[in-house]
Amino acid sequence: MASPALARPRTPAPPFRSIGRSILLTLPMALWALLMFTPSFQQHGRNSHIGAVAVILFMTTLFFLMMRTGKTYRWRRYFFVALGFLFPVGFIAALVALRGTMSIPIERMVSGDTPFCFMVTPMLLIPAAFTRTVIFPGSILPTASNPHSIAIMIGIWSAMTLVVGKAWCSYICFFGGIEEGFAAFPKHMKIRRLDPRLRLVPWAILLFVVVLSAALFEPVYCMWLCPFKTVTEYPAVHSVETAIQMGIFITLFAGLVVVLPFLTKKRTQCAYFCPFGAFQSLFNKINLFEIRFDREKCVDCTLCRTACPTQALSAESIRDGKTLLNCMKCGACVDSCKKDAAVWHLKGTKVALKPERARLLFLYGAWAMATMFGGSILANSVATMIGFLPFK
Amino acid sequence: MLGLATGPICLASCGPVVLPWMLVQPRGVRVHARQLSIFLAARLAGYLLFAALIWFAGLAISRSWTGRSWVFGSVQVALAAGLLIYAVAWPHAGCAFRHTHRNRLVHIGAPPDPRPRPTGAAALGFLTGINLCPPFLVAGVRAAQLPSLPAALLFFAVFFVGTAVWFTPFLSLGVVRRTPSFLTVARLAAVLLACWYGFSGASLLIEKAIYG
Fold it and tell me: In chain A, count of helices (H) and strands (E)?
Protein backbone atom coordinates (compact mmCIF):
# COMPACT_ATOMS: atom_id res chain seq x y z
CA MET A 1 0.00 0.00 0.00
CA ALA A 2 1.30 3.39 -0.95
CA SER A 3 2.21 5.82 1.80
CA PRO A 4 0.02 8.95 2.12
CA ALA A 5 2.84 11.11 0.84
CA LEU A 6 3.15 9.01 -2.31
CA ALA A 7 -0.60 8.67 -2.82
CA ARG A 8 -1.06 12.43 -2.83
CA PRO A 9 -1.54 13.64 -6.43
CA ARG A 10 1.30 15.80 -7.70
CA THR A 11 0.35 19.35 -8.52
CA PRO A 12 2.37 20.88 -11.34
CA ALA A 13 4.45 23.87 -10.35
CA PRO A 14 2.75 27.11 -11.32
CA PRO A 15 4.33 28.94 -14.25
CA PHE A 16 6.86 31.52 -13.22
CA ARG A 17 5.39 34.28 -15.36
CA SER A 18 2.15 34.88 -17.30
CA ILE A 19 2.11 34.24 -21.06
CA GLY A 20 1.49 37.92 -21.87
CA ARG A 21 4.34 39.14 -19.73
CA SER A 22 6.64 36.44 -21.09
CA ILE A 23 5.82 37.46 -24.66
CA LEU A 24 6.46 41.09 -23.80
CA LEU A 25 9.87 40.24 -22.36
CA THR A 26 10.70 38.04 -25.37
CA LEU A 27 9.80 40.73 -27.92
CA PRO A 28 13.18 42.58 -27.81
CA MET A 29 15.01 39.31 -28.36
CA ALA A 30 12.74 38.37 -31.27
CA LEU A 31 13.42 41.75 -32.88
CA TRP A 32 17.14 41.31 -32.29
CA ALA A 33 17.06 37.90 -33.99
CA LEU A 34 15.18 39.35 -36.97
CA LEU A 35 17.72 42.15 -37.20
CA MET A 36 20.62 39.71 -37.07
CA PHE A 37 19.27 37.57 -39.90
CA THR A 38 18.10 40.37 -42.20
CA PRO A 39 21.27 40.08 -44.34
CA SER A 40 20.55 36.36 -44.81
CA PHE A 41 17.17 37.20 -46.34
CA GLN A 42 18.69 39.78 -48.68
CA GLN A 43 21.66 37.86 -50.01
CA HIS A 44 21.49 34.10 -49.95
CA GLY A 45 19.39 31.35 -51.48
CA ARG A 46 16.33 29.47 -50.30
CA ASN A 47 18.19 27.10 -47.98
CA SER A 48 19.68 30.04 -46.10
CA HIS A 49 16.23 31.61 -45.75
CA ILE A 50 14.86 28.38 -44.27
CA GLY A 51 17.85 28.13 -41.95
CA ALA A 52 17.45 31.73 -40.80
CA VAL A 53 13.71 31.35 -40.14
CA ALA A 54 14.28 28.09 -38.24
CA VAL A 55 16.94 29.68 -36.05
CA ILE A 56 14.89 32.83 -35.36
CA LEU A 57 11.97 30.64 -34.23
CA PHE A 58 14.24 28.32 -32.25
CA MET A 59 16.08 31.09 -30.37
CA THR A 60 12.94 33.13 -29.72
CA THR A 61 10.99 30.12 -28.47
CA LEU A 62 13.76 29.13 -26.09
CA PHE A 63 13.98 32.65 -24.72
CA PHE A 64 10.21 32.73 -24.27
CA LEU A 65 10.38 29.46 -22.31
CA MET A 66 13.14 30.90 -20.13
CA MET A 67 10.89 33.83 -19.34
CA ARG A 68 7.80 31.71 -18.82
CA THR A 69 9.34 29.02 -16.59
CA GLY A 70 12.07 30.99 -14.83
CA LYS A 71 14.54 28.24 -15.72
CA THR A 72 17.76 29.10 -17.55
CA TYR A 73 19.97 26.03 -17.82
CA ARG A 74 17.21 23.73 -18.99
CA TRP A 75 16.37 25.76 -22.13
CA ARG A 76 19.86 27.10 -22.81
CA ARG A 77 21.05 23.51 -23.07
CA TYR A 78 18.89 22.83 -26.16
CA PHE A 79 20.54 25.70 -27.97
CA PHE A 80 24.02 24.86 -26.75
CA VAL A 81 23.87 21.17 -27.64
CA ALA A 82 22.42 22.01 -31.06
CA LEU A 83 25.28 24.47 -31.57
CA GLY A 84 27.89 21.91 -30.53
CA PHE A 85 26.58 19.14 -32.77
CA LEU A 86 25.70 21.29 -35.79
CA PHE A 87 28.84 23.46 -35.89
CA PRO A 88 31.04 20.67 -37.30
CA VAL A 89 28.43 19.94 -39.99
CA GLY A 90 28.59 23.43 -41.50
CA PHE A 91 32.32 23.82 -40.88
CA ILE A 92 33.37 20.51 -42.41
CA ALA A 93 31.04 21.02 -45.39
CA ALA A 94 32.64 24.44 -46.00
CA LEU A 95 36.15 22.95 -45.73
CA VAL A 96 35.35 20.13 -48.13
CA ALA A 97 33.78 22.57 -50.60
CA LEU A 98 36.83 24.86 -50.39
CA ARG A 99 39.68 22.33 -50.26
CA GLY A 100 38.18 18.93 -50.92
CA THR A 101 39.40 17.63 -47.54
CA MET A 102 39.15 18.26 -43.79
CA SER A 103 42.92 18.32 -43.42
CA ILE A 104 44.83 21.52 -43.94
CA PRO A 105 47.89 21.23 -46.19
CA ILE A 106 51.09 23.06 -45.27
CA GLU A 107 50.80 25.37 -48.32
CA ARG A 108 47.48 26.66 -47.01
CA MET A 109 49.03 27.36 -43.61
CA VAL A 110 51.93 29.24 -45.22
CA SER A 111 49.54 31.35 -47.27
CA GLY A 112 47.60 32.27 -44.11
CA ASP A 113 44.42 30.42 -45.00
CA THR A 114 43.83 28.74 -41.60
CA PRO A 115 40.56 29.93 -40.02
CA PHE A 116 41.32 31.57 -36.67
CA CYS A 117 39.96 29.90 -33.56
CA PHE A 118 39.48 31.82 -30.30
CA MET A 119 41.33 29.05 -28.41
CA VAL A 120 44.61 30.50 -29.75
CA THR A 121 44.12 33.91 -28.10
CA PRO A 122 46.11 33.36 -24.86
CA MET A 123 49.01 31.86 -26.83
CA LEU A 124 49.31 34.98 -29.00
CA LEU A 125 49.88 37.40 -26.14
CA ILE A 126 53.57 36.95 -25.19
CA PRO A 127 55.02 36.69 -28.73
CA ALA A 128 52.87 39.64 -29.82
CA ALA A 129 53.99 41.74 -26.83
CA PHE A 130 57.71 41.03 -27.16
CA THR A 131 58.26 40.56 -30.88
CA ARG A 132 55.10 41.93 -32.53
CA THR A 133 54.64 38.56 -34.19
CA VAL A 134 51.37 36.65 -34.59
CA ILE A 135 52.19 32.97 -34.17
CA PHE A 136 49.19 31.63 -36.08
CA PRO A 137 49.10 30.70 -39.76
CA GLY A 138 46.06 32.86 -40.46
CA SER A 139 45.50 36.31 -41.92
CA ILE A 140 45.08 39.42 -39.76
CA LEU A 141 42.34 40.86 -41.96
CA PRO A 142 39.65 38.86 -43.79
CA THR A 143 40.46 37.62 -47.27
CA ALA A 144 38.37 35.96 -49.95
CA SER A 145 39.76 32.52 -49.07
CA ASN A 146 39.73 33.08 -45.29
CA PRO A 147 36.93 35.25 -43.92
CA HIS A 148 37.57 34.03 -40.35
CA SER A 149 40.50 36.36 -39.81
CA ILE A 150 42.40 37.00 -36.59
CA ALA A 151 41.23 40.63 -36.18
CA ILE A 152 37.55 39.72 -36.58
CA MET A 153 37.67 36.83 -34.12
CA ILE A 154 39.66 38.77 -31.52
CA GLY A 155 37.17 41.66 -31.88
CA ILE A 156 34.17 39.35 -31.42
CA TRP A 157 35.82 37.63 -28.47
CA SER A 158 36.73 40.92 -26.73
CA ALA A 159 33.23 42.38 -27.10
CA MET A 160 31.48 39.24 -25.93
CA THR A 161 33.86 38.69 -23.04
CA LEU A 162 33.16 42.19 -21.77
CA VAL A 163 29.42 41.47 -21.84
CA VAL A 164 29.28 37.92 -20.51
CA GLY A 165 32.71 37.08 -19.02
CA LYS A 166 33.25 33.37 -18.54
CA ALA A 167 29.67 32.77 -19.71
CA TRP A 168 31.36 32.62 -23.13
CA CYS A 169 31.89 28.96 -22.29
CA SER A 170 28.18 28.24 -21.85
CA TYR A 171 26.56 30.50 -24.44
CA ILE A 172 29.04 30.96 -27.27
CA CYS A 173 31.75 28.27 -27.38
CA PHE A 174 30.64 25.82 -30.05
CA PHE A 175 32.97 23.12 -28.71
CA GLY A 176 31.39 22.92 -25.24
CA GLY A 177 28.01 21.92 -26.67
CA ILE A 178 29.32 18.56 -27.88
CA GLU A 179 30.30 17.35 -24.42
CA GLU A 180 27.21 18.91 -22.84
CA GLY A 181 25.25 16.78 -25.28
CA PHE A 182 27.06 13.60 -24.28
CA ALA A 183 26.68 14.54 -20.61
CA ALA A 184 22.92 14.90 -21.10
CA PHE A 185 22.44 11.37 -22.49
CA PRO A 186 22.63 9.19 -19.34
CA LYS A 187 20.04 9.49 -16.60
CA HIS A 188 22.49 9.02 -13.74
CA MET A 189 26.19 9.52 -13.12
CA LYS A 190 28.28 6.38 -13.45
CA ILE A 191 31.25 8.05 -11.76
CA ARG A 192 30.30 10.22 -8.80
CA ARG A 193 33.55 11.06 -7.04
CA LEU A 194 35.94 13.34 -8.87
CA ASP A 195 39.00 14.79 -7.18
CA PRO A 196 38.40 18.55 -6.79
CA ARG A 197 42.10 19.16 -7.48
CA LEU A 198 41.38 18.26 -11.10
CA ARG A 199 39.99 21.80 -11.39
CA LEU A 200 43.58 23.05 -11.31
CA VAL A 201 44.68 21.11 -14.39
CA PRO A 202 43.39 23.69 -16.95
CA TRP A 203 45.52 26.36 -15.24
CA ALA A 204 48.60 24.17 -15.54
CA ILE A 205 47.82 23.47 -19.19
CA LEU A 206 47.32 27.22 -19.75
CA LEU A 207 50.73 27.95 -18.24
CA PHE A 208 52.26 25.14 -20.28
CA VAL A 209 50.83 26.21 -23.65
CA VAL A 210 51.46 29.94 -23.15
CA VAL A 211 55.11 29.48 -22.15
CA LEU A 212 55.87 26.83 -24.74
CA SER A 213 54.10 28.72 -27.54
CA ALA A 214 56.35 31.69 -26.81
CA ALA A 215 59.41 29.43 -26.89
CA LEU A 216 58.55 27.54 -30.07
CA PHE A 217 56.76 30.35 -31.89
CA GLU A 218 53.81 28.13 -32.72
CA PRO A 219 50.37 27.64 -31.15
CA VAL A 220 51.23 24.55 -29.12
CA TYR A 221 47.66 23.77 -28.09
CA CYS A 222 46.48 23.64 -31.71
CA MET A 223 49.50 21.63 -32.80
CA TRP A 224 49.36 19.02 -30.05
CA LEU A 225 46.46 19.14 -27.62
CA CYS A 226 43.18 20.33 -29.17
CA PRO A 227 40.57 17.54 -28.92
CA PHE A 228 38.30 19.36 -31.35
CA LYS A 229 40.69 18.95 -34.27
CA THR A 230 38.94 15.60 -34.59
CA VAL A 231 35.71 17.27 -35.72
CA THR A 232 37.05 20.41 -37.38
CA GLU A 233 40.33 20.51 -39.28
CA TYR A 234 43.75 19.02 -38.64
CA PRO A 235 47.22 19.16 -40.17
CA ALA A 236 47.47 16.71 -43.08
CA VAL A 237 49.00 13.44 -41.85
CA HIS A 238 52.26 12.98 -43.77
CA SER A 239 54.82 11.98 -41.13
CA VAL A 240 55.23 10.16 -37.84
CA GLU A 241 54.91 13.48 -36.01
CA THR A 242 51.58 14.40 -37.62
CA ALA A 243 50.34 10.84 -37.02
CA ILE A 244 51.19 11.21 -33.31
CA GLN A 245 49.39 14.57 -33.25
CA MET A 246 46.30 13.01 -34.83
CA GLY A 247 46.44 10.15 -32.30
CA ILE A 248 46.51 12.65 -29.43
CA PHE A 249 43.57 14.62 -30.86
CA ILE A 250 41.41 11.53 -31.29
CA THR A 251 42.31 10.11 -27.86
CA LEU A 252 41.55 13.39 -26.09
CA PHE A 253 38.29 13.80 -27.98
CA ALA A 254 37.13 10.28 -27.27
CA GLY A 255 38.14 10.46 -23.60
CA LEU A 256 37.28 14.00 -22.56
CA VAL A 257 34.42 14.90 -24.89
CA VAL A 258 32.57 11.60 -25.33
CA VAL A 259 33.33 8.94 -22.69
CA LEU A 260 33.96 10.95 -19.51
CA PRO A 261 30.99 13.35 -19.94
CA PHE A 262 28.82 10.27 -20.49
CA LEU A 263 30.11 8.64 -17.30
CA THR A 264 30.21 11.72 -15.06
CA LYS A 265 27.45 13.96 -16.48
CA LYS A 266 30.02 16.76 -16.31
CA ARG A 267 31.69 18.83 -19.01
CA THR A 268 35.01 17.16 -18.35
CA GLN A 269 36.99 18.78 -21.16
CA CYS A 270 35.86 22.26 -20.08
CA ALA A 271 36.33 21.58 -16.37
CA TYR A 272 39.54 19.58 -16.33
CA PHE A 273 41.42 20.36 -19.51
CA CYS A 274 40.53 23.49 -21.51
CA PRO A 275 43.24 26.19 -21.10
CA PHE A 276 41.09 28.77 -22.84
CA GLY A 277 38.40 28.19 -20.19
CA ALA A 278 40.97 28.89 -17.48
CA PHE A 279 42.04 32.06 -19.29
CA GLN A 280 38.40 33.10 -19.68
CA SER A 281 37.85 32.60 -15.93
CA LEU A 282 40.06 35.61 -15.29
CA PHE A 283 37.42 37.80 -16.95
CA ASN A 284 34.85 36.75 -14.36
CA LYS A 285 36.66 39.20 -12.09
CA ILE A 286 35.70 42.16 -14.27
CA ASN A 287 32.28 40.95 -15.40
CA LEU A 288 29.21 42.45 -13.76
CA PHE A 289 27.19 39.27 -13.40
CA GLU A 290 27.68 36.36 -11.03
CA ILE A 291 25.85 33.65 -9.09
CA ARG A 292 25.60 34.14 -5.33
CA PHE A 293 24.14 32.12 -2.48
CA ASP A 294 21.73 33.41 0.12
CA ARG A 295 23.13 31.86 3.29
CA GLU A 296 19.87 32.36 5.19
CA LYS A 297 17.98 30.16 2.71
CA CYS A 298 20.70 27.59 1.95
CA VAL A 299 20.20 24.23 3.69
CA ASP A 300 23.44 22.63 2.40
CA CYS A 301 21.56 19.99 0.42
CA THR A 302 24.41 19.95 -2.20
CA LEU A 303 21.93 19.74 -5.09
CA CYS A 304 23.68 22.71 -6.70
CA ARG A 305 27.09 21.08 -6.42
CA THR A 306 25.79 17.92 -8.03
CA ALA A 307 24.14 19.90 -10.83
CA CYS A 308 27.16 22.08 -11.62
CA PRO A 309 28.69 20.73 -14.86
CA THR A 310 32.19 22.07 -14.16
CA GLN A 311 32.63 21.61 -10.40
CA ALA A 312 32.62 25.38 -9.95
CA LEU A 313 31.15 25.04 -6.46
CA SER A 314 32.76 23.78 -3.29
CA ALA A 315 31.48 23.52 0.27
CA GLU A 316 33.73 26.46 1.23
CA SER A 317 32.64 28.65 -1.66
CA ILE A 318 28.94 28.04 -0.89
CA ARG A 319 29.65 28.85 2.75
CA ASP A 320 31.12 32.14 1.51
CA GLY A 321 28.02 32.67 -0.63
CA LYS A 322 30.01 32.59 -3.89
CA THR A 323 30.98 30.34 -6.76
CA LEU A 324 34.57 29.53 -7.69
CA LEU A 325 36.38 31.53 -10.35
CA ASN A 326 35.61 28.96 -13.06
CA CYS A 327 31.82 29.44 -12.86
CA MET A 328 30.47 29.81 -16.41
CA LYS A 329 27.04 31.09 -15.39
CA CYS A 330 25.08 28.33 -17.09
CA GLY A 331 22.40 28.57 -14.40
CA ALA A 332 22.37 24.85 -13.49
CA CYS A 333 22.78 25.58 -9.77
CA VAL A 334 20.00 28.20 -9.76
CA ASP A 335 17.64 25.87 -11.61
CA SER A 336 18.38 22.99 -9.24
CA CYS A 337 18.01 24.93 -5.98
CA LYS A 338 14.69 24.14 -4.33
CA LYS A 339 15.04 26.84 -1.68
CA ASP A 340 15.86 29.70 -4.07
CA ALA A 341 19.16 30.18 -2.27
CA ALA A 342 21.22 30.27 -5.47
CA VAL A 343 20.50 33.56 -7.20
CA TRP A 344 21.67 35.66 -10.12
CA HIS A 345 23.44 38.76 -8.91
CA LEU A 346 24.56 42.07 -10.32
CA LYS A 347 27.80 43.17 -8.68
CA GLY A 348 27.45 46.25 -6.52
CA THR A 349 23.87 45.43 -5.49
CA LYS A 350 22.60 43.62 -2.42
CA VAL A 351 22.56 39.83 -2.74
CA ALA A 352 19.12 38.26 -3.36
CA LEU A 353 17.41 41.64 -3.41
CA LYS A 354 16.14 41.44 -7.01
CA PRO A 355 17.70 38.30 -8.49
CA GLU A 356 15.25 38.04 -11.38
CA ARG A 357 16.20 41.51 -12.53
CA ALA A 358 19.88 40.50 -12.53
CA ARG A 359 18.99 37.32 -14.45
CA LEU A 360 17.06 39.29 -17.05
CA LEU A 361 19.88 41.77 -17.55
CA PHE A 362 22.38 38.97 -17.93
CA LEU A 363 20.19 36.93 -20.25
CA TYR A 364 19.48 39.82 -22.60
CA GLY A 365 23.22 40.27 -23.09
CA ALA A 366 24.13 36.60 -23.24
CA TRP A 367 21.22 35.54 -25.46
CA ALA A 368 21.80 38.45 -27.82
CA MET A 369 25.42 37.33 -28.21
CA ALA A 370 24.36 33.70 -28.55
CA THR A 371 21.85 34.62 -31.29
CA MET A 372 24.37 36.71 -33.15
CA PHE A 373 27.30 34.27 -33.04
CA GLY A 374 25.87 30.82 -32.39
CA GLY A 375 22.66 31.59 -34.26
CA SER A 376 24.50 32.37 -37.48
CA ILE A 377 26.47 29.12 -37.12
CA LEU A 378 23.26 27.18 -36.57
CA ALA A 379 21.54 28.82 -39.56
CA ASN A 380 24.50 28.02 -41.80
CA SER A 381 24.55 24.39 -40.65
CA VAL A 382 20.79 23.99 -41.10
CA ALA A 383 21.10 25.42 -44.63
CA THR A 384 23.97 23.00 -45.35
CA MET A 385 21.95 20.03 -44.12
CA ILE A 386 18.96 21.03 -46.26
CA GLY A 387 21.34 21.06 -49.21
CA PHE A 388 22.18 17.40 -48.47
CA LEU A 389 18.53 16.34 -48.70
CA PRO A 390 17.75 14.17 -51.75
CA PHE A 391 14.65 16.18 -52.72
CA LYS A 392 14.43 19.87 -53.63
CA MET B 1 74.09 44.53 -28.28
CA LEU B 2 73.44 41.05 -29.69
CA GLY B 3 72.48 39.83 -26.20
CA LEU B 4 70.14 42.76 -25.59
CA ALA B 5 68.58 42.48 -29.05
CA THR B 6 67.96 38.74 -28.87
CA GLY B 7 67.00 38.83 -25.18
CA PRO B 8 63.26 38.25 -25.75
CA ILE B 9 64.05 35.13 -27.78
CA CYS B 10 66.40 33.93 -25.01
CA LEU B 11 63.68 34.64 -22.48
CA ALA B 12 61.14 32.72 -24.53
CA SER B 13 63.57 29.80 -24.98
CA CYS B 14 64.46 29.56 -21.28
CA GLY B 15 60.96 30.56 -20.06
CA PRO B 16 59.55 27.01 -20.11
CA VAL B 17 62.27 26.00 -17.65
CA VAL B 18 62.60 29.15 -15.55
CA LEU B 19 58.93 29.97 -15.03
CA PRO B 20 57.60 26.73 -13.49
CA TRP B 21 60.85 26.29 -11.56
CA MET B 22 60.56 29.79 -10.05
CA LEU B 23 56.90 29.30 -9.27
CA VAL B 24 57.57 26.27 -7.10
CA GLN B 25 60.09 28.25 -5.02
CA PRO B 26 58.98 29.64 -1.66
CA ARG B 27 57.67 33.18 -1.58
CA GLY B 28 60.12 36.08 -1.20
CA VAL B 29 62.08 38.34 -3.50
CA ARG B 30 65.33 37.55 -1.67
CA VAL B 31 64.88 33.80 -2.19
CA HIS B 32 64.13 34.40 -5.85
CA ALA B 33 67.12 36.72 -6.25
CA ARG B 34 69.41 34.10 -4.73
CA GLN B 35 68.03 31.28 -6.86
CA LEU B 36 68.05 33.35 -10.03
CA SER B 37 71.66 34.40 -9.37
CA ILE B 38 72.73 30.76 -9.04
CA PHE B 39 70.77 29.89 -12.16
CA LEU B 40 72.37 32.71 -14.16
CA ALA B 41 75.86 31.93 -12.86
CA ALA B 42 75.48 28.32 -13.95
CA ARG B 43 74.12 29.53 -17.26
CA LEU B 44 77.22 31.71 -17.67
CA ALA B 45 79.38 28.65 -17.00
CA GLY B 46 77.51 26.81 -19.74
CA TYR B 47 78.02 29.76 -22.09
CA LEU B 48 81.77 29.92 -21.42
CA LEU B 49 82.18 26.18 -21.86
CA PHE B 50 80.37 26.39 -25.17
CA ALA B 51 82.46 29.44 -26.18
CA ALA B 52 85.67 27.53 -25.53
CA LEU B 53 84.44 24.48 -27.44
CA ILE B 54 83.21 26.51 -30.36
CA TRP B 55 86.45 28.44 -30.65
CA PHE B 56 88.48 25.22 -30.74
CA ALA B 57 86.16 23.51 -33.20
CA GLY B 58 85.65 26.57 -35.40
CA LEU B 59 82.53 27.38 -37.37
CA ALA B 60 81.74 23.75 -38.15
CA ILE B 61 80.32 23.19 -34.69
CA SER B 62 77.43 25.57 -35.21
CA ARG B 63 76.91 25.22 -38.96
CA SER B 64 77.01 21.63 -40.09
CA TRP B 65 78.21 19.69 -37.12
CA THR B 66 76.40 16.37 -37.31
CA GLY B 67 76.56 15.88 -33.57
CA ARG B 68 74.33 18.90 -32.91
CA SER B 69 71.21 16.74 -32.68
CA TRP B 70 72.89 14.51 -30.10
CA VAL B 71 73.76 17.51 -27.91
CA PHE B 72 70.37 19.14 -28.38
CA GLY B 73 68.48 15.89 -27.73
CA SER B 74 70.56 14.96 -24.69
CA VAL B 75 70.23 18.44 -23.16
CA GLN B 76 66.46 18.34 -23.60
CA VAL B 77 66.19 14.91 -21.97
CA ALA B 78 68.34 16.18 -19.07
CA LEU B 79 66.14 19.27 -18.75
CA ALA B 80 63.08 17.01 -18.63
CA ALA B 81 64.66 14.99 -15.84
CA GLY B 82 65.57 18.19 -13.94
CA LEU B 83 62.07 19.60 -14.19
CA LEU B 84 60.53 16.27 -13.16
CA ILE B 85 62.76 16.10 -10.11
CA TYR B 86 61.70 19.63 -9.17
CA ALA B 87 58.02 18.94 -9.73
CA VAL B 88 57.71 15.52 -8.18
CA ALA B 89 60.60 14.46 -6.00
CA TRP B 90 62.27 17.54 -4.55
CA PRO B 91 61.02 18.26 -0.98
CA HIS B 92 60.22 21.89 -1.68
CA ALA B 93 58.32 24.43 0.36
CA GLY B 94 54.99 23.06 -0.79
CA CYS B 95 55.48 20.24 1.70
CA ALA B 96 55.17 22.78 4.49
CA PHE B 97 51.52 23.18 3.53
CA ARG B 98 50.97 19.47 3.68
CA HIS B 99 52.51 19.25 7.11
CA THR B 100 50.69 22.22 8.55
CA HIS B 101 47.44 21.80 10.42
CA ARG B 102 45.90 24.66 12.38
CA ASN B 103 49.23 26.48 12.32
CA ARG B 104 51.01 23.53 13.93
CA LEU B 105 53.40 21.08 12.40
CA VAL B 106 51.84 17.66 12.78
CA HIS B 107 54.54 15.47 11.24
CA ILE B 108 57.06 13.60 13.32
CA GLY B 109 60.72 14.51 13.00
CA ALA B 110 62.47 17.61 11.74
CA PRO B 111 60.37 20.03 9.68
CA PRO B 112 61.28 20.24 5.99
CA ASP B 113 63.89 22.86 5.14
CA PRO B 114 61.96 25.62 3.35
CA ARG B 115 65.14 27.00 1.75
CA PRO B 116 65.62 25.70 -1.77
CA ARG B 117 68.91 23.97 -2.50
CA PRO B 118 71.34 25.58 -4.96
CA THR B 119 72.05 22.37 -6.89
CA GLY B 120 68.73 22.43 -8.75
CA ALA B 121 69.18 26.02 -9.87
CA ALA B 122 72.76 25.31 -10.91
CA ALA B 123 71.83 22.19 -12.90
CA LEU B 124 68.94 23.87 -14.72
CA GLY B 125 71.03 27.00 -15.35
CA PHE B 126 73.90 25.00 -16.84
CA LEU B 127 71.59 22.95 -19.04
CA THR B 128 69.79 26.02 -20.39
CA GLY B 129 73.25 27.56 -20.91
CA ILE B 130 74.28 24.85 -23.33
CA ASN B 131 70.82 24.48 -24.91
CA LEU B 132 71.29 25.53 -28.52
CA CYS B 133 68.64 28.23 -28.96
CA PRO B 134 68.71 30.45 -32.12
CA PRO B 135 70.41 33.53 -30.52
CA PHE B 136 72.98 31.21 -28.99
CA LEU B 137 73.86 29.80 -32.41
CA VAL B 138 74.17 33.32 -33.85
CA ALA B 139 76.55 34.21 -31.02
CA GLY B 140 78.41 30.94 -31.64
CA VAL B 141 79.05 31.81 -35.29
CA ARG B 142 80.41 35.22 -34.29
CA ALA B 143 82.58 33.78 -31.49
CA ALA B 144 84.10 31.15 -33.80
CA GLN B 145 85.34 33.92 -36.11
CA LEU B 146 87.24 35.71 -33.33
CA PRO B 147 91.07 35.50 -33.39
CA SER B 148 91.70 34.26 -29.82
CA LEU B 149 90.09 32.15 -27.09
CA PRO B 150 89.94 35.02 -24.52
CA ALA B 151 88.16 37.15 -27.13
CA ALA B 152 85.60 34.38 -27.70
CA LEU B 153 85.08 33.95 -23.94
CA LEU B 154 84.71 37.72 -23.46
CA PHE B 155 82.26 37.87 -26.35
CA PHE B 156 80.08 35.17 -24.76
CA ALA B 157 80.36 36.76 -21.30
CA VAL B 158 79.12 40.13 -22.63
CA PHE B 159 76.45 38.33 -24.67
CA PHE B 160 75.37 36.66 -21.43
CA VAL B 161 75.09 40.04 -19.63
CA GLY B 162 72.92 41.38 -22.46
CA THR B 163 70.53 38.43 -22.26
CA ALA B 164 70.56 38.25 -18.43
CA VAL B 165 68.96 41.71 -18.19
CA TRP B 166 65.79 40.20 -19.61
CA PHE B 167 65.57 37.71 -16.75
CA THR B 168 65.19 40.31 -13.99
CA PRO B 169 61.36 40.49 -14.31
CA PHE B 170 61.28 36.92 -12.98
CA LEU B 171 62.18 38.38 -9.56
CA SER B 172 58.65 39.81 -9.36
CA LEU B 173 57.35 36.24 -9.05
CA GLY B 174 58.73 36.35 -5.52
CA VAL B 175 55.92 38.61 -4.33
CA VAL B 176 53.15 36.29 -5.57
CA ARG B 177 51.42 34.52 -2.70
CA ARG B 178 52.03 30.75 -2.67
CA THR B 179 48.86 28.83 -1.93
CA PRO B 180 48.58 25.05 -2.15
CA SER B 181 46.56 25.46 -5.37
CA PHE B 182 49.20 27.76 -6.83
CA LEU B 183 51.97 25.29 -6.07
CA THR B 184 49.96 22.41 -7.51
CA VAL B 185 49.46 24.33 -10.75
CA ALA B 186 53.17 25.19 -10.96
CA ARG B 187 54.18 21.58 -10.33
CA LEU B 188 51.67 20.24 -12.87
CA ALA B 189 52.97 22.73 -15.44
CA ALA B 190 56.53 21.60 -14.68
CA VAL B 191 55.49 17.97 -15.24
CA LEU B 192 53.85 18.87 -18.56
CA LEU B 193 56.92 20.81 -19.68
CA ALA B 194 59.15 17.93 -18.60
CA CYS B 195 57.01 15.61 -20.73
CA TRP B 196 57.42 18.00 -23.65
CA TYR B 197 61.21 18.25 -23.29
CA GLY B 198 61.44 14.49 -22.84
CA PHE B 199 59.36 13.83 -25.95
CA SER B 200 61.22 16.43 -27.99
CA GLY B 201 64.66 15.26 -26.88
CA ALA B 202 63.83 11.58 -27.34
CA SER B 203 62.44 12.29 -30.84
CA LEU B 204 65.67 14.02 -31.81
CA LEU B 205 67.80 11.20 -30.45
CA ILE B 206 65.69 8.49 -32.10
CA GLU B 207 65.67 10.37 -35.39
CA LYS B 208 69.44 10.76 -35.22
CA ALA B 209 69.91 7.09 -34.36
CA ILE B 210 67.74 5.92 -37.27
CA TYR B 211 68.65 8.36 -40.03
CA GLY B 212 72.15 9.35 -38.89
Answer: 20, 4
